[in-house]
Design a protein that fits this description.
Blueprint lengths: L20 H14 L5 H9 L7 H10 L5 H11 L6 H14 L4 H14 L9 H4 L4 H13 L6 H11 L22 H13 L13 H11 L1 H12 L6 H10 L1 H12 L3 H40 L1
């Protein structure tokens, strides 16, 4: 994986050439006329037509639309910003401001995350780190997609925490709680199917800070439902698949210094000082993982013994 310093993350991909200003002005005029449509859907269509017109004038127009009173308009405006690849840094920073200012609007946040990914803009950290800790299914799914596609090692420690809940070692979830969907399709088809099933089984339970049984349980249940997208995201970053959290943590303990270096380089920190600290921490992590593995093995042995007694 190509590692780049933090100062260059916003321009990791060369910007595309913008369309000429006269063409942009024509597109904006068409948009303004079409935006007079009576229906929200008509307005959305007019906004999205600006997606394929990369230009500073269009980006300025979209920045106004991101403040529109109608959430569905702001939602599509965020998606349209994803097409402003002539200025990935400027567009990315605009999306980050929208992300922070409109964080309570689920559909807008999800669209912002999708657009940031389309721009190949990586200057979204640490702001977007909070999205991995969210309780809204679409927000977490889009964030997993974003950091997975970018092979963003900065997300790795939080993904380990998510794995502990979603794919714990020696634990199965009863009562039909878990939703794991394998459509056999490429891309985010599994994630979308999991989201649909989750919403059907947990109506009103995906909102930030509420729904479906309170703070911690709502978040935990959501992560268990999204075990497959979480697993896929970790595989995109590490190149390996892990059956459970203990296997992932074992790998992390063995590769702790390498992971620390990758994160440091992405964060623009001095790799050598970070590596020195990681070397001091690695032994403790290995000891913890070994102790956890021993507990799991002992619990499994005890369960087998109890089952034998019942026969």
């Amino acid at each position: 994986m190509r590692i780049v310093a933090l100062c260059t993350l916003g321009a990791a991909v060369l910007a595309a050439d913008p369309v000429p200003d006269d063409k942009a002005k024509e597109a904006i005029a068409r948009f303004q006329d079409a935006f007079k449509a009576a229906t929200v859907e008509g307005k959305q269509s007019a906004v999205y037509d600006l997606h394929d017109v990369p230009n500073d004038l269009v980006l300025k127009e979209l920045s106004k639309l991101l403040k529109n009173k109608e959430p569905k308009v702001r939602h599509v405006a965020a998606l349209a910003v994803g097409g402003q690849s002539h200025d990935p840094k400027g567009a990315g920073e605009l999306l980050l401001r929208t992300y922070k200012g409109d964080f309570d609007t689920e559909e807008v946040v999800a669209s912002v995350l999708q657009a940031i990914g389309e721009l190949k803009y990586m200057g979204y950290w640490p702001e977007v780190e909070t999205a991995l800790k969210d309780k809204r299914t679409p927000v977490v799914l889009r964030t997993l997609d974003l950091v997975g596609n970018n092979q963003d090692w900065r997300a790795f420690p939080e993904l380990v925490e998510m794995y502990r809940i979603a794919l714990p070692a020696g634990k199965t979830w009863g009562g039909g709680e878990e939703v794991t969907v394998d459509t056999g399709a490429e891309g985010d088809a599994d994630a979308q199917a999991a989201e649909a099933q989750y919403n059907a089984q947990n109506p009103g339970g995906s909102g930030r800070g509420g729904g479906g049984g309170g703070g911690g349980s709502s978040r935990s249940s959501m992560l268990r439902n999204l075990s497959r997208p979480i697993e896929r995201c970790v595989k995109q970053i590490t190149g390996q698949r892990f059956d459970n959290s203990l296997d992932l943590e074992t790998w992390w303990a063995e590769n702790y210094i390498t992971v620390a270096r990758k994160i440091a380089e992405l964060e623009g920190k001095d790799p050598e000082s970070v590596v020195a600290r990681a070397k001091a921490e690695q032994a403790e992590l290995k000891a913890k993982v070994e102790a956890d593995r021993k507990k799991v093995e002992e619990a499994a042995a005890k369960k087998r013994e109890e089952e034998e007694k019942k026969k």
